[in-house]
Automatic annotation (TrEMBL):
Keywords: Membrane, Transmembrane, Transmembrane helix. Residues 1-35 are annotated as: Disordered. The chain crosses the membrane at residues 101-120. This is DUF3618 domain-containing protein. Residues 1-23 have a biased composition (Low complexity). It holds the Pfam family DUF3618.
Length: 123
């Protein structure tokens, strides 16, 4: 009978589940020395920090709602600006195509009709 350490996961026991390297993430090997271990710890801390930041951003409902509102404001502003441009272009096109005399005649007809309605109601 051989003696093994009483602490699980230390020398003498292959890993928590009984297989060598089972407690290590896939694709990672044990550190070869203290410098490599420090480097692995620093990389793990950086990944963990990134993960925490991503989770915090997802949990910040107010900021997400404000960002979405800003996007919608930009979209609405663009739509309004585009509609104004289209209306201005249409008005310019109408001014070019309809002769001034026709417009003046139409305005005269409206004035005569309005005067007729006014006189008719006064009776």
């Amino acid at each position: 009978m051989t003696s093994t350490s009483s602490t699980p996961g230390t020398s003498g026991t292959p890993g928590a589940s009984g297989t060598p390297g089972a407690s290590e993430p896939k694709g990672h090997t044990g550190a070869k020395g203290p410098d490599e271990l420090r480097q692995q710890i620093a990389e793990t801390r950086a990944r963990l920090g990134d993960t925490v930041e991503e989770l915090a951003a997802k949990a910040d409902v107010k900021a997400r709602a404000q960002a979405q509102m800003a996007d919608l404001k930009g979209t609405a502003s663009y739509a309004v600006h585009s509609a104004k441009d289209s209306c201005a272009h249409a008005a310019h096109t109408v001014r070019e195509r309809v002769p001034r005399a026709v417009v003046m005649g139409g305005m005269g007809a409206v004035a005569v009709a309005a005067a007729g309605v006014y006189v008719w109601r006064r009776r």
